Amino acid sequence: MELSRNKPIVCPVLIGRAADLTALHVLIDQAKRGEGQVAMISGEAGIGKSRLVAEGKSYAIAQGFRLLQGNCFPGDISCPYAPLLDLLRTHFASQSRTEIATELRPFARELAQLIPDLVPLLPDSAPTPPLTQLEPEQEKRRLFESLTQCFTGLATKQPVLLIVEDVHWSDDTSLELLHYLARRCASYRLLLLMTYRNEEVRSSLSHWLTQLDRERLTQEFPLARLTRGDLDVMLRAIFALPRSRQLELPDLLYTLTDGNPFFIEEILKSLIVAGGIFETNGTWNRRPISELHVPRSLHDAVQQRTDQLSESARQVLRLAAIAGRRFDFALLQQLTQHDEQQLLTLMKELIAAQLVVEESEERFAFRKRHKVSTRYGLPLNNSHGRWMPPVNWGDHPRRRSTAPVDKRTKRWANLNTRVAITSRHWTLPVLLRMVSQSGRVSLISALCGQGVTIHKQAHFSSVHMNTHAKWVSRPCLHAV
Q: What one-character-per-residue DSSP string does 100-114 give?
């Protein structure tokens, strides 16, 4: 088939979620019978939470449910009732003045505190007495009760599917309200469906989830990544193929994405738009890895987290990214020149930012969601956004290795690795500062070819920039 650059790359069917969707349909059927339910869909970013919600919405609407949906956004954590305001405004935007008056009249005074712009939409009526002044906590409970009665009142007329997405960005007051509603919905035709990222659970959200579990108010749907077989099915569905025509592309996609559906679609879109994959005689072909580009959406997902790091932590992250998916503490310490305690402090900062996980005492890895940006050693400050081949660290001695290694050999190997990285990824002025030692390493370790290449670049740089590389020793010049 012909691959269109303008065709949206979205899988037309839900893949790998049959059991979850069946269970969600059961909850919708129970809510329709008056057995109110609370469900929570969790998983990493891009795993398909919203897609499962969309499938549930389609089924619920077909069953005669009224849909109410609010969304949380990154800035909402400091805005009380943000997702509920979004839900109410969206709902009433499609209602007539008569419908708004009918639904809001019993709660007009309370809701006017939240949505003052709805008050003018109410028909003229006799003024109502002001609310009795209460303590802040009592005032909050009165508002909780009014909103709960509003939602359960709608459910007496028609089954209601109430959706709140991305509650990991919700403010604490909204979480309290949702907990209050979850306790009250059991006897109504109401399904409360929420989503959150299990990798962004702050302390208040963790406490809230624990309360829901302790009271057995919710059923959770933790979504896992797709399997390799699921990826084949996904590609066949996207490109309307009877079978996968070539194994290389699915293997590459699965290696890059670990089965994250959003990442798969984004990389496919990027490849097609850039001409990175194309069809010839019924076979998929692709450009070399070095010519492929990182999709902007994936690069931005990593960049948002790195912007919050200290400069030292960002520098460590850049060095680690060149290594690929996994990297050793000992090698990173050699590259950064930090002592062990300094580097451990910076690694804790990267772990707290949810960019890195600790696999063992000596080895760390980028989180699965960031693997696409690190699998090919993409430095986080690479302005071209191209895939870059990884440096092979396989022979680097581990921190606690007991094998007898000559100290000079280890030092030369470590330094040679540092220079190899520098020569491939950084600027020539940085290269000049290491060129003297690198020449010795290349000579002694019988890697003269690398030494020649490095010194040629450094010699040209020093001449072109009118720089005097006084530290370049005679053995290095002999290497050239």
A: HHHHHGGGHHHHHHH
